[in-house]
Write a structure and sequence with these properties.
The N and C termini lie far apart (about 65 Å). The chain is mainly α and about 250 residues long. α1 packs across α3, α7 crosses α9 and α8 runs antiparallel to α9.
Length: about 250
């Protein structure tokens, strides 16, 4: 039996109005890092005591985690940390590819030095991180890097992109913690995307970004669920590539 109070920290709440948000972000980080492993069943009573918060903000935080696919509700005020879901990985990646292509197209229609500076700052922070793909700081910089290239998209689209990136983060960490993939490869891909954009080769940069997302998902699926066919991811890549190839042919 896992002693929850040895895993979950007691929170020091500076602003009680943000209790739910703090509980949610704390539990999500523990799930992403693997400290709360898949399959673990937790008593909400014990969790409330370990965190030092009342049941109401905890219930709301758990509801948010359920919506994100990170927790499954159980009977008797218990919850279970959700396991690996191949279909979720595939559908998340497929939709992310389509939305990212749209957001980049809208943002990179005009050359913007501020976008390039923001992307370069984030890229350098990622490259300096000693735990690429694993640390929360690396992922924060990774989100900023990709978000800079979709920053001029409509707000609703940016919200969808952020949700997809957050949902994918758990799977990226799972891959990075394994031995499958050297993160020098991911580093090269980010550098290439940045270089293509500085050279104003926007369509190539969009395809490179989508392939970058797809490779991560397909690599993870091949290791964890080799019999699964990532149809959504492959279809999204084909659609984006064909669309941009057709556009280039008309130039």
């Amino acid at each position: 039996m896992v002693a929850i109070d040895r895993i979950v920290p007691r929170l020091e709440l500076e602003d009680p109005r943000r209790t739910t948000e703090t509980v949610h972000s704390t539990l999500r980080e523990l799930i992403y890092s693997g400290e709360l492993p898949a399959g673990l069943i937790i008593s909400q009573v014990e969790l409330s005591e370990a965190l030092g918060v009342s049941r109401t903000p905890l219930r709301e935080a758990i509801r948010m985690l359920q919506e994100e696919g990170l927790i499954d509700a159980q009977a008797n005020r218990r919850c279970r940390i959700a396991g690996f879901d191949a279909t979720d990985v595939d559908s998340t990646c497929g939709s992310r590819i389509m939305l990212e292509a749209l957001g980049m197209s809208l943002t990179l229609a005009h050359h913007d030095e501020e976008i390039l500076k923001a992307a370069l700052d984030a890229l350098e922070e990622m490259e300096a991180d000693e735990h690429p793909g694993v640390s929360s700081a690396w992922h924060a910089a990774h989100h900023r890097f990709h978000n800079s290239f979709t920053s001029h998209a409509p707000g609703a689209l940016r919200d969808q992109l952020s949700a997809g990136a957050e949902r994918a983060e758990r799977y990226v960490r799972q891959l990075a913690q394994g031995v499958l993939m050297g993160w020098s490869h991911g580093r090269e891909e980010h550098r290439r995307i940045y270089s293509l954009i500085t050279e104003r080769r926007v369509n190539e940069a969009i395809v490179a970004t989508c392939q970058h997302y797809a490779r991560t998902a397909v690599t993870l699926l091949a290791d964890v669920s080799p019999e699964f066919e990532p149809a959504a991811t492959r279809s999204a890549i084909r659609l984006v590539s064909r669309s941009l190839d057709a556009e280039l042919a008309r130039v």
